[in-house]
Amino acid sequence: MLIISGTSIKQQVIGHHSVPCAACRQETLHRFQRNYSVKHVFWFPLFSYHTTYAKLCERCNLLSPTSEPAPGTAPPTPALHRLGFVFPLGLFFGLPMMFVTCGAIFGAGGVSSGRAAAADTERSRGRFHADDTDRAARSAVQGYFDRLGLRGSTVAATSAAVNGHTVRLLTVHYSRLKKVSHGDRVRLLEQLEQFADENYPDDEVFLGMKGIVLWGGHSHRKAGDDWQREVHETTPDPEKNAYAAFDALELAAAPTAAADARAEPLNPLPPEQ
Question: Is the pLDDT of residue 117 over 80?
Answer without folding.
Answer: no
